[in-house]
Design brief:
Radius of gyration: 21 Å
Shape: globular
Distance between the termini: 76 Å
Number of helices: 11
Length: 218
């Protein structure tokens, strides 16, 4: 039996901030359902009942829209980790909770595949929202610490979590399958390591850089 296509959303006049909010919400739905390739101006226009030209007017380009979407997702992550140091101090399960927030943002939130898409496109300037959000996150965590060495340790911890979460979101399922590991194996590993970065006596200092061998040395 013929099934009638659902009607498209009725087009109505909206202010710029409202269009951007609706557009980003639609972009996130498209990203999670169809991957980065589905996040196009035309698809978003269909989702929110607006022409391609109008969506283009509010976002400038598909790349700019993807950058705005990345910024929105990273802001959500920053908000979720607002009291991360207190959580780590007061809750034995705190490290795993923190790691789950970060990994969920890159995996279930779609930031990992989207970041890979942006990087492969060569337009890395559109990762700027990530840079600003990561800096804000580091500053927020450092602000809750009390010792002088905290900034360096916190930057190392955020680096470890972010790179691990990105890699796990993009290629983790395949590598875990090769090694016969649980779905949360990487999360569990990072959760066990994380506290070492955030206590003064934890992670040992980096080894000094080894001199490069001279030409002809074996």
């Amino acid at each position: 039996m013929y099934k009638q296509a659902p009607p498209r959303p009725k087009r109505r006049k909206r202010l710029g901030p409202e269009v951007r909010e609706e557009g980003l919400a639609a972009a996130r739905r498209l990203l999670l359902a169809g991957g980065p390739g589905a996040v196009t101006l035309a698809n978003i226009g269909d989702e929110i009942g607006m022409s391609h030209a109008n969506v283009l007017h509010h976002f400038g380009s598909a790349a700019s829209l993807q950058a705005a979407l990345m910024g929105s997702m990273i802001e959500d992550l920053t908000t979720a980790l607002d009291n991360v140091v207190e959580l780590l101090k007061t809750d034995a399960a705190g490290p795993r909770t923190v790691v789950d927030h970060v990994f969920d943002a890159f995996d279930k939130g779609g930031a990992g595949p989207l970041a890979a898409w942006i990087i492969l496109s060569g337009d890395v300037n559109h990762l700027e929202p990530v840079r600003e959000a990561v800096r804000s996150l580091v500053e927020a965590i450092v602000g809750q610490s009390r010792d002088e060495a905290a900034p360096e340790r916190v930057r190392a911890a955020v680096l470890m979590m972010a790179v691990s979460a990105f890699g796990d979101a993009v290629i983790g399922p395949y590598v875990r399958d090769m090694l016969d590991q649980r779905e949360d194996a990487m999360r569990d590993l990072i959760a066990r390591i994380l506290p070492l970065f955030l206590i003064p006596s934890g992670i040992p200092p980096a080894l000094p850089e080894r001199p490069k061998p001279k030409q002809g040395d074996s």
